[in-house]
Amino acid sequence: MPYRPLVAFVFGLILPGLFFLSPEVFAQSEIERLQEEISVRNDRLGDIEAEIAAFERQLNEVGAERQTLQSAIRQLEAERGKVTAEISKTEALITSTDLEINKLILEINAAERDMATAKGTIGEIIRTQFRANEQSLVEILLQHERLSDFMREVDSFERIKSEMATHVTSLDQLKIVLEERRENSQEKRSQLAVLKDQYSEQNEVLVNNRAEQSQLLTATRNEEAGYQALLANKQSAREQLLSEMRDFESQIQFILDPNTIPSPGTVVFNWPVQNVIITQLFGGTEFARLNASVYGGRPYHPGVDFGAPRGTPILAPLSGTVRAVGNTDAVPGCQSWGKWTLLDHANGLTTLYAHQDVIGVTPGQRVVTGEIIGYIGNTGFSTGPHLHFTVYAKEGVSVRQFNEIKTVTSCGPATTPVAGTDAYIDPMLYLPPR
Q: Per-residue b/e over 109-147, b at no fewer than 16 CB within 10 Å?
């Protein structure tokens, strides 16, 4: 085949596809429509965030009041409004993420089609060149009457080679884009699965809120005296239980080896909540009295309390494995941790998360730093929604039934973490500076 037909043929293949490589060209209108929907959803998220902030301000005001039946009811109603807004936020995120996945699917399909076209075009050019190269330059020269015609043909052929090289480079770039979008799609699918789990758990928080209000009104018959008596009974039961727990744990033989845990003052944990409001610090244990950096003069409190509204996500402060979960409220009269989770870490420490409204993990599950492991609640003995966060030396803590603590008869088979006094460690020693 002479070079002139070759040039015409090759340019016929290249020119129509010179600008095909942008994935957005394919089904551009549909991709743009999805992007507009995503933007609308994101705008709605801003409105929902404002609603949530308003409910949080309301909860802070109610929480500052003296505990009365009416304040407890108002708090439950404000919590219900906030959780409902959080559910709306999650719904909007689910829809937005689903739209983003659909948009990525369109872009991936477009990129794959463009790549197939590019490969076909390049292949055809190569095959045509191969057939043309069967002729020697001398033979081609002899086919032209003038040398200038021959030189133009050669120059055109060089331009074709240059265009094909550009085409190949663009194809390589398109492969990179395609892989990035596939990775983004997989990431969005993972996010979608997490959001759907979160949606389910937030709805469970809402159900628990309504059940608590119903139980509260039933127990008090909507009378302030009944509510105050209920608080007093809970306080008395808790004090008895704490006293018996301290006596039991003081008999557990455990000597902390400092070499088995991180050095105090080393930041190994992230905060377990996003908005850090500490309502009570650690203090009163053997470890506290033996270490100047902790709070030995305070009443016995084996952890740090973080104040937050019901339904606030609890975040794993460090990767680890769930050793156990429990619910002391499942046994009538057991005024203790309520719903709790025990998480083992690879650095010799174990952490406890108590008073949860919903537990989001199961025993044996691996979790990563920042993952949602539960939601703050008001279960067990608690004067308001908060997270109780305890840090133990891993080797010094075990899970026992309350009936092993002989004088406690009301809790029976409910389970709880127990540890020797030396196994308790001030969480603030390992958390970031405030």
A: ebbeebbeebeebbeebeebeeebeebeeeebeeebeee
Helix/strand/coil for 13: helix
CA count, 13 A, side-chain hemisphere, 406: 3
Q: How many CB atoms lie within 10 A of CB 361?
A: 20
Q: In three state form, how does the secondary structure of 96-128 look?
A: HHHHHHHHHHHHHHHHHHHHHHHHHHHHHHHHH
- Residue 417 and residue 343 in contact, taking contact as beta carbons nearer than 8 Å: no
The residues that bridge with 354 in the sheet, in sequence order, are 388
Nearest residue to 278 (alpha-carbon basis) of 316, 300, 307, 298: 307
Crossing angle of helices 3-14 and 69-132, in 10° steps, is: 170
CA distance 417 to 325: 10
Q: What is the pLDDT of residues 258-297, one digit of tens each?
A: 888 999 899 999 999 999 999 888 876 454 455 434 333 3
Residue 115 to residues 90, 132, 356, Cα–Cα distance (Å): 37, 26, 52
Helices (H), 133-223: 137-142, 147-220
Structure confidence at residue 136 (pLDDT): 53
Return d(Cα 166, Cα 176) in angstroms, integer: 16
Closest-CA residue to 394 (of 431, 354, 425): 425
**What does residue 382 show for φ and ψ, rounded to 5 degrees?**
-155, 135
DSSP SS3 for 212: helix
Tokens (6 digits) for 158? 């060089």
The helix (run of H) or strand (run of E) holding residue 55 is helix 28-63
Burial annotation 235-244 (CB, 10 A radius, 16+ → b, else e): eebbeebbeb
Q: Is the dihedral of CA 179, 370, 393, 293 positive or negative?
A: positive
CATH architecture of the region 236-429: Distorted Sandwich (2.70)
Per-residue pLDDT tens digits for 219-263: 788 788 887 887 777 777 777 777 777 777 777 877 778 888 999
Report domain extents, the chain.
3-205, 236-429
In eight-state DSSP terms, residue 428 is: G
CA 431 to chain centre: 19
What number of H helices and E strands is found in the chain?
7, 12
Q: Is 418 in contact with 248 (CB distance < 8 Å)?
A: yes
Assess contact for 247 and 414: CB atoms under 8 A: no
Name the DSSP class of 312: P
